[in-house]
Structure formats: structure tokens, C-alpha cells
Amino acid sequence: MGVADRGLKTHQGHMIYTLSVYNKKEKNNAITLSAFNIQEALIWKEKIESVIDQHNTVSDKYASYKYGSGMDNGVTASSSENGSQFGEHEDEDNTHTNLFWRKTIGNVDRTPECDSELPNQTANNQAFPINRWRLLKCQNGLRIFEELTETDYLLRSCSQAMKAVGIVKATCEEIFELVMSMDATRFEWDSTFQHGSLVEEVDGHTAILYHRLQLDWFPKFVWPRDLCYVRYWRRNDDGSYVVLFRSREHANCVPQSGYVRAHVESGGFNISPLKPRNGRPRTQVQHLMQIDLKGWGVGYIPSFQQHCLLEMLNNIAGLRAWCAQRDERDAHTRIPAIAINTSGYVSPQKTASSALMDEYSDEDEEFQITEEEEEVASEKGLFSVVFNLQVPGSTHYSMVFYFVTKELVPGSLLQRFVDGDDEFRNSRFKLLPSVLQGSWIMRQSVGSTPCLLGKAVECNYIRGPKYLEVDVDIGSSAVASGVLWLVMGTSPTLVVDMAFLVQANTTEELPEQLIGAVRVSHVELSSAMVPRLHPDSS
Questions:
Q1: pTM
Q2: Range of the domain at 5
Q3: Pairing mode of beta strands 383-391, 467-473
Q4: Are residues 196 and 245 in the same domain?
Q5: pLDDT digits (tens, 9 = 90+) for 333-349
Q6: Are both 455 and 495 inside the same structural domain?
Q7: Contact present, 228 and 212 (Cβ < 8 Å)
């Protein structure tokens, strides 16, 4: 059994939070639960997970005894049916408290926080490294920072990334739902908001939105701006929220007459809990924007963009003032609503996997892979461990990484991983990513903290005489697919290191088994080629 966070769904013009309780071996056997506020959904999720964890604890004890008594090393072939998502809470990995590893699912730092005023300090330092930001000014009780990074991949007209940091006396859930909503309440705290509507609901964590800006920089002479962007969100285990957005073209969100279509290179909110003070909840809110407002007036762009960008970042002060005015908090958390543009709304008949790659597909069919390629490890020689990362879309892409070794040491973590069952493999298969080059939104969405891939996405394992192939279906996770929506178009500017490991759960199993590491640098999708697979000549 497993429980998956299915995110937000539109219901009668409002947003509801949905969960799915499913059978890992029979995907069709699932129950969908929904709640009108995220707190209630989280309570249900935690209760269900606690029951599942109790069962897994018993299974883990039996597995440990099985491995300790000696395991049959015969060749096995099995297929994982794990359909869980990034961001799921897996308590079974916390049973060994003597290990100082970070528990992460969905690129989220799960290290227990120290007794500090700053929330999620380690994770924030990874997303916002100290040497990347310079304090620019203090305004309305906010600290305004400017990013100090190389921006060769940006257009000249695109401004440097800037962020505002402030403290709001409200819960993370309240602020998150305010940020996600586009109803009349937004006029009370967002001075740059004029209109917003839903263009397409991709899945529970990803949506395409249309947004009109209300900017006060010489409105008689400067045309208003509008945006079409993809919005992705996730909730971290420490109670913080990340909301990211980036401009994207859409057939049902064409430029409007009388408006200049601006371009958001990177944008988002980081909403993190602080220690309560005097019984009142407190939250640190970070708002980042990197935007090109477009337009013909090159002479006024620097001052124009600086003024408008600061006006957008000042929305945190609006949030703080709006929350401070509420002397009596509502008994129930408000439900975020979004105005649906019936003329431009697209019924989400296509899945995220079928619509993801349309914009980036190369028209030359010679370089397109029309089906996911599996069982690519068939060559003789040394023992091979192969990772086939499958990227969904109208054209399926695969990144295949081969690692070889002379022999498997009996009783080692690697041997147990290779010859174990799917449940053991899923509980130990770990990825460590590290973004070396890329925009803020890439670093924030990809992350740089460990992730148990077997718990986050569906992994199929093919065991052969001389190889183990792991087919990682990225499209099986709504959260992972949402990340692809954000970063796929900017892959030529992305440099990321990835290490594949077998996780150690006890001190006796340390050090963890490194299977291999690879650097993915400036990937061009147009360079993808159809592999020529030859049958085994033996």
C-alpha cells in the first residue's frame, strides 16, 4: 500500500486537495480522498502513512533477518509497481537515528532542524547560497537582495534576479493559499495584480496561468503587461512550501491586444515556518523574480524594470499587513479560488506526459524516439548497472548511463541491491543531484539534496545474467513532471552532477555504496538519436 499526494484539483471554481491510497501491485485499485483545506489533507496523509509504516517496520525486520541469514543469489527478474510521488513522507528511513543522513523525497531537505530562528537554514543555503546574493536595500521592513551570478544565458533586457525576505505573522498554510489564489482577496495584498485565470490544469502540482499586471510606472505612456506562465508547487516535510513559476507559450494563451507580453525567467515563493512568538505563528516569506518586461523603450528599461520589480517584491509587505489586520482568524482556512477563463480554458484531456514535450520536440523524425526504450543493457562483458532515465512526452527521450564493475562482492550493499526484491531496491536506491550551473529556478526545482528515487517515482528493474537495468519513469510522478515543465526548455544552460547510491540504513552498512556518478552538461534535445540495439549473438 502507498499514499500519494495528488495536489490541487479544480472543483466548482475552487481548489480541493486530493490524496490517493493505492495498491502498489495493482495500480487500478486506488481510493481518492479530498479535503477543502490543506491542513485536513495533511492530517489524513500522516495518519494513513503511520499505518503503512507500522506494516513496513515489520517487513524490514524480516528482511534484515533474511539478509543476515544468507540470501539466495540466484538470478531474479521483477518489476516495480511503485507509483508514489516526489514529496511523500517515508518514515521507515528514520528508524536508524544514529545516522546523520538527510532524508529527502522530491528534492527536499529533511534534516531535523536545529533550534534556530531561521527556518530550513540548510535547505535555504542550498537554494540561495550566501555568495550568490547581495543586500541591495531595506524597504518597508523587507530586505531586498540582488543575485550575484553569471547571466550569460539571459537576454540583455532581462534583469538580474532579485528577492525580498520578510516575516509574516501567519501560518505557512494561510500564506500558501493566499499566494495560490487569484480571487478578489488578492487585490487586498497584491498591488500589481489586475486579473488572473486558469488556462490549463496539467496536474495537481502544475498549472498554466494567465496573469495581468497592474504597474504604476507612467501608465499613460507605458502599455500594461501580461504573463502566461507555468506554476509548480510542492510542500516540504518541514512544513515549508515552494511555489515556482516560469513563462511558457500556450496555444490558448496568445498575446492580448493592448498588452505587452512580459517574460518571467525565474520566479517564486519560499514559505518557511518560524518559531511562534507570544503564541502567534510566524513565517518567513521569500519572493524572487527575474523578469523581462519587454517593450520598445530601451532607454527607460533599467529604471522601468527596477521600479516595477521592486513593486512586485513589495507584495510581501502587503501580505504582512493583510494578515496583521485580521484580529480574529477564521475557524476554517479559506479555500483558494481561481477565475476560470471559459474562452481560453483547455480541458485537461491530455495527460502531463502526452503534452509535456510538444514545445520542445524536434520536427526531424530521424532524431526522435517514439517509444520508451527499455532493456538496453544486453552487451556482454563486465557486470553492468544501467540507469535509464525516461523523460515523458509526445516524443519520449531517455538518458542512459552505464556503470561497470569486475565482480559483485557477496554480502555487499551493491550485491544485495542487485539480487534483492523490488521493495528492498526501492527503499535503498538513492540519487544525489548537484546543480553547478543554471538559473535560480533550476537550482530550486532540481535541488541539491538526496532523494530516494524508488520511493519518489516508478522504477522497473530488469535483472539479467550480467547486468541490472533500472528504468526510471519520471512521468509517473506529478511533482517530477512539474519540475520538467520548468526546466526542460532551459536544458542547454543546465549543468548538473548526479550520483547513484545504495543507501545504508545501519552503521554496519556504512559507508554507502556509490554505484557511479555522471555530469550532465548543456544537453541539446535535438542531438538525441535512436539507439541501434543488436540481439545477443550468443
A1: 0.58
A2: 1-58
A3: parallel
A4: yes
A5: 454 444 444 444 333 34
A6: yes
A7: no
